[in-house]
Amino acid sequence: KSSLKERFKELLLLSQWTDCTFAVGEENTEIKCHKLVLAVSSPVFEALFFGGLSDPSCEPIRVPDIEPQIFKMMLMYMYSDSLNLHTVEEAGNLLYAAKKYLMPQLSRLCLEYLLDRTCIQTLWDILAIAESLDEEELIDAVLKIMCRFGRHVWYSKAEHLSAAMLKRLLSETSMNMSEEELWSVTLDWAHKDCLDRGVILTGRHLRDALQRERLLERIRFLVFNGEKFKNDVVQTEVLTESEVNVICQLIEEQQLDQNGLTDDDTNKHTYEIPAGICPLKKKRRRVSRVIWRCTREKVKGDTMWICCDQFVCSVVSNNLVLVTGLEVPTRSIYSARECYPWLGSLQHPTGTYNERFSVAITDQDGTVLVSTSYDARVPYDSIQVVTLDEEVWFNANKTYYIIIEVSSGSYELYNLARSVESKGTIFTFKDSSDHSRAGIFCGSFVTSILYCL
């Protein structure tokens, strides 16, 4: 072999001159190794083979808490410094093994793999790993995504949150989620806690659960809308009558101040915020998000000037993405009459014009997920960003349809790429229009997808 690493790797693979045996996993899979290699790689193995823990009669050495595949990956790293991780689950299991045997370099490699792959799709799996192994850096990475995407990633999965994680979320000063939504999530957690403990769902028991974990004191009730507070909080009977009265008065005063209806401070009452109630009166700051652009490049084909009423573009992504908008062309300043007489008489405008159209996104069953109207003064022959009224989840390997209804005008369209890779996600497009149904090529109207990972 050309290198020492390769020769050591061959020793492991061929089990040559081994002097220790492990029984790994639930089925006691036999794995043979070399004491010296393991001892120089891990202080745990050093103590086991050459220190105070040494006991030759204990072989095979039982390792019931690590799967054979993971144990072999750890050994391969010990023998050759090579590591090939393929999944988040694999990295989490290997991180557990590396921490058990006090191998900080291997732990760091596993941790970096998980950090690089912490995103919307992997959030809950990585959170489970982070909490089980008490990896603070990994928990912080998950926390940032939760704050950035708010209800999009954890509003519907509050039951998966531990009390410690929910407490950390409620302690954040910046989050893309309203206080009313945070209260709803916190209340859902309290409901589950009561059910898990076999306690009747009463306001008092919900309050006990929230106070036990110090969650109630982290809800900013003073930023609630008065009507929302009465409907969403008061009716739960979590707060006492005196707490409700004071909070209602403070909310009312704040709303009057915001509307400029209380100029004389002498007419204001002084209300003492009850103990255990958050005194903060400011909303949490919004968190900016990174928006990626999946842009379709031009491919060979004719340029088309098209006048039609509807453009449809189907989109499939191989990963879960949150779509925030799209880019489309504006009308062409040139006349298409010479190329296509059936388009009729077209004027030669200059400068800008008022563009109006509607965008709807549906799933493959035809259910409308979002509908947005676009109305803006735009330059001719340009690309414009259309921000959706509501962001839409595109699930992996599912077909979604972008339907654009235009009123009039001539658009210069190109044949754009049907498959585009962006930040590791592959988008597949298919274009059609009311003309394509008649057998006429229509070009591509959706030029880019704007999305978050």
TrEMBL record:
PROSITE patterns: BTB
InterPro entries: BTB/POZ_dom, SKP1/BTB/POZ_sf
Pfam families per record: BTB (PF00651)
Domain of life: Eukaryota
Gene3D superfamilies in the record: Potassium Channel Kv1.1, Chain A (3.30.710.10)
BTB domain: residues covered: 18-87
Protein name (record): BTB domain-containing protein
Organism: Triatoma infestans (Assassin bug)
